[in-house]
Design goal:
It is a single chain. By secondary structure, this protein is an alpha+beta fold. 33% of the residues lie in helices and 27% in strands. It contains ten helices and 17 strands. It has a nine-stranded mixed beta sheet with strand order 1-2-6-7-10-13-14-15-17. The relative contact order is 0.12.
Amino acid sequence: MTKKQKFGMSTVLAGMLLAGLVFSPVQAKTQKYTNTDFAMNTVVSETLYTKGKDLNPSIGKLLKKTEDEILSWTEEDSQIAQVNHAGGETVEVSAELADYLKKTQQLAEDSQGAFDPTLGRVIRLWDIGGENAGIPQTGELESLLEETGYEKLELDGNKVTLKDGATLDLGAAGKGIGCDLVMDFLGQNKDVSGMILNLGGSSVMAYGEKPDQSDWRVAIRDPREPEGDYLGAVTLKGGEFLSTSGDYERYFMEDGKRYHHILDPETGYPVWNGLTSVTVVCGSGLFADGLSTACFVLGKEKALPLLEKYGADAAFVDENHKVYLTEGMKERFELMKNTYETDMLK
């Protein structure tokens, strides 16, 4: 190629650049995808921001697969069911389940048993939210309580042993586990800039940020009017998880008393300590889910050291329409209902 030809080509290229005729790779526009699904026995709401394809269907499949193959106690082929049906024999499980069980056992120990993953048979005896809900016979309840206790769960790497007739039920942490899984899944996709995932209103995950960089805000239900106006809203950052446990989610009334699904592992009866809901925010879905249950059982004063250990924020709502906030929750909570008032936990 001659110098003249080179000069000519450079001139043409420069002209094309000035005219906008040479195109650099086009930046894909961030799209918003919303979806409603059903998984983990609850309604799943998804809002995804990405420059790539809609991943909501894949997320739904991931949640359902995890429930069916690992966490469900009703699916005979699930790993939890296999451990429960092993009659005390040691079962080797996947690394995923071994990790979940290690974390739940840690939380059980740290909460001194307020969170207990071995309450499966007691939960099913009450059947709160099911077709046969009712107050159990005292003798039957006491007999089943003898088969509970997180100490009966033994872990040795991927090997799991349940002693003395204990059974596993990770329902109090399952939705949080699902949120953790989705967080990890999104982290592997560079096209995704943000997502809010809501499992049944009780477990929420915030990933990344919105295109306009506005806050992720999660509405909190009024425990005594769950289908009415919201009690308040909590601001989340990307990478944070929120979980709420309340006596309004599943319950029945008898003789004017509310029998709800949050059971005290010591007595086997629903927790009656004046609380109506507890909302927790922290950096783990599993721990946020489990902590909201443990803190409900412990009560607001006894729960504070546990929250501090996990670096978690919390809001405790009681029957007197008071909302007690930890220092960290005060910065992110907005009261939206004038029939309630807030106070600080000390």
